[in-house]
Every structure is written in structure tokens, then in C-alpha cells.
Write a structure and sequence with these properties.
Length: 227
């Protein structure tokens, strides 16, 4: 999996989204056989009462995540996302009517007869509401802001995602460390955090195995000694 996609997936999963990454859109070719139109970098869905809504929406981290994603808590949300290591922009394939139609039909988020109208709304405004009441949105993730404003998508910068994930990791280090996650994005961040914590004594004069947020000594597994 691409590193940028892995970070986006980790961020979305942390905040209650179910994800599918690098989803191929295939159609029948004119000359016979099949052809792949494109890979959609990330498809994600969050139910209205998941961690981004209800009581949890009042938590500062959830409010910050919802603000980054441009969505209110309490509303079921489907994201069709483009992920770039450069500018956060939609490529031409991701804005094709047949590609978006295939994504919506494949995931059964709306009635077949409604798909055409929803796709038209997506291509005009970057978001549409289904007859079930949930939102479908186009979101572009990237390391740099787009070269021009595109009303068809909401933009999220990878730098903001990384800062958010690392801040959450440091606030809840015991839970993150105990998760032993095999998710590539989480795993990469866990490794970076462990490496930095191990390097702290040499560069900052912090006692060996100390937690940088509290200064308390950590045991060999990263747990704190109190005393």
C-alpha cells in the first residue's frame, strides 16, 4: 500500500470509518474483454452513531477530525477519496461519471435509479445526499494545497493528518502501544514514536526510557514506573 494512502486510512479508521483502499473500477471494453478505468485510492463510510458523533463528538480530537474532514458529527458519511503525495487534487479518472457510478453501485449506498442524479451533484458540488439521508463526498488528500480552488472536492492536507495522529498517539500512548496494530499506517507511526522515545536520552538529556510527555521512567515494554 502507498504510504500516503496508509496514513489516510489510519486517520479515517481512528475516527470510525470503514475503509477500502486502491479499489479497481473495471468495465467491459469496446473490443471485448475487460479494462480497468482507474483505482480509487480510498472509499470510506462512517455510520452516524460511530465515534465521530453522539457523545464522542464533544471530544476535542473528534471535533478536530471532523473539522479537517469538513463533516458534522451525527451524519452518516461516505468518502470517495483521492490521495496524492503532491498537490491535493482530483485526477481526471476520479471525476468520470462512469467511475463514480461504479463506486456507488458497488457499495450499494443508494438505489440504482438515484445514482445518476447523485453523481451529477458530486461533480457539481463535491457532495450529495442520498435518499437514505447520508452524505457522499469527494475528498482530495495531499501534501500540498491545490493550485486552484476546486468546488468539486474538500481538501485535507497530509501534514494535518500526521500531526493529528501523532498528537493522539502521545495523549493515549498506553492504548496505542497495547493495540499491536498491523495496520500499515498505525504501524509506521508506532515505529517512529518508539524510535524517537528511544533516541530522546541522547539528544535531550532525558533519563533513559522516559516518557517525553511526563518525564516518568518507562519499563522495557514502555509502561511507566511511578515513584
Amino acid at each position: 500500500m502507498d504510504n500516503a494512502v496508509a496514513l489516510v486510512q489510519a486517520f479515517l479508521r481512528l475516527h470510525g470509518y470503514l475503509t477500502v483502499t486502491e479499489f479497481p473500477v473495471v468495465r467491459a471494453a469496446r473490443g471485448g474483454g475487460q479494462e480497468c478505468l482507474t483505482d480509487l485510492d480510498v472509499l470510506a463510510f462512517r455510520f452516524g452513531e460511530s465515534s465521530g458523533s453522539g457523545e464522542a463528538m464533544h471530544h476535542p480530537a473528534e471535533n478536530e477530525a471532523n473539522a479537517l474532514l469538513g463533516v458534522a458529527g451525527g451524519v452518516p458519511d461516505m468518502i470517495i477519496g483521492e490521495v496524492k503525495e503532491g498537490r491535493a487534487e482530483l485526477n481526471s479518472a476520479a471525476t468520470r461519471h462512469d467511475v463514480l457510478s461504479a463506486a456507488l453501485e458497488r457499495f450499494g449506498c443508494c438505489r440504482h435509479g438515484d445514482i445518476d442524479g447523485i453523481v451529477h451533484e458530486l461533480l457539481r458540488h463535491g457532495r450529495a445526499r442520498t435518499h437514505h439521508g447520508h452524505m457522499v463526498r469527494l475528498v482530495a488528500f495531499g501534501t500540498l494545497a491545490p493550485g486552484h480552488q476546486d468546488r468539486r472536492c474538500h481538501v485535507v492536507l497530509l501534514g494535518d493528518i500526521v500531526a493529528h495522529l501523532r498528537a493522539d498517539m502521545r495523549r493515549h500512548w498506553d492504548a496505542w502501544r497495547a493495540s499491536a496494530s498491523k495496520d500499515p499506517g498505525f504501524g509506521m507511526l508506532l515505529t517512529l514514536e518508539k524510535a524517537e522515545r528511544g533516541h530522546l536520552p541522547a539528544v535531550r538529556g532525558v533519563p533513559p526510557h522516559a516518557d517525553p510527555s511526563t518525564g516518568r521512567t518507562l519499563d522495557s515494554r514502555g509502561g511507566q514506573h511511578h515513584g
